[in-house]
Amino acid sequence: MKRLIGTAIAALTLAAVSARAVDAKELYEKQCAKCHGKEGKGDTKMGQKYGCKDYTDSKAQEEMKDEKAIKAIKEGVKDKEDKQVMKPSEGLSDDEIKGLVKYMRSFKK
């Protein structure tokens, strides 16, 4: 009986983790891909205009610290002239933001 309960809990946990991964991908595609590109290369017209980095590049991934990425998602990003180049993502929970960062990490080649 204990083994059955343990297996059920493990299955539910795995399903929840998988659901969050899907949610992060959907959020990314809905809110981020327009500029950062579906595969994180920053090669869209908007991404090139605003200088989005190629997150498939390991060097770009190393430079992107989680705290900095979370702050950018929460607060947006401004350029050197204080012009906003990325709007803050409103209405996202801390878990959703962490999921986005984790999803962006998956672009690394």
Strand content: under 5%
As for the CATH topology, it is Cytochrome Bc1 Complex, Chain D, domain 2
Q: Radius of gyration, Cα only, in angstroms?
A: 17 Å
**Spatial order of the strands forming the largest sheet:** 1-2
Q: What is the CATH class name? A: Mainly Alpha
What is the ordering of alpha helices and beta strands?
Answer: HHHHHEEH
Mean pLDDT: 85
Low-pLDDT residue spans:
10-19
- How many discrete domains? 1
Strand element count: 2
Structural class: mainly alpha
Head-to-tail CA distance between termini: 43 Å
The CATH architecture comes to Orthogonal Bundle
The gross shape turns out to be globular
Annotation field: number of helices: 6
Major sheet: 2 strands, antiparallel
Labels describing this entry:
109 residues, mainly alpha, Cytochrome Bc1 Complex, Chain D, domain 2, two-stranded antiparallel sheet, 6 helices
Q: How would you concisely characterize the structure shown here?
A:
This protein has 109 residues and is mainly alpha-helical. Helices cover 62% and strands 5% of the residues.
Structural write-up:
This protein has helices at 2-31, 33-36, 45-50, 58-63, 66-75, 94-105, and strands spanning 77-78, 84-86. It is mainly alpha-helical and 109 residues long. The chain has a single domain (2-105), classed as Orthogonal Bundle (Cytochrome Bc1 Complex, Chain D, domain 2), CATH 1.10.760. The protein has a two-stranded antiparallel ribbon. Helix 1 crosses helix 6 (94-105). Residues 10-19 have low confidence and may be disordered.
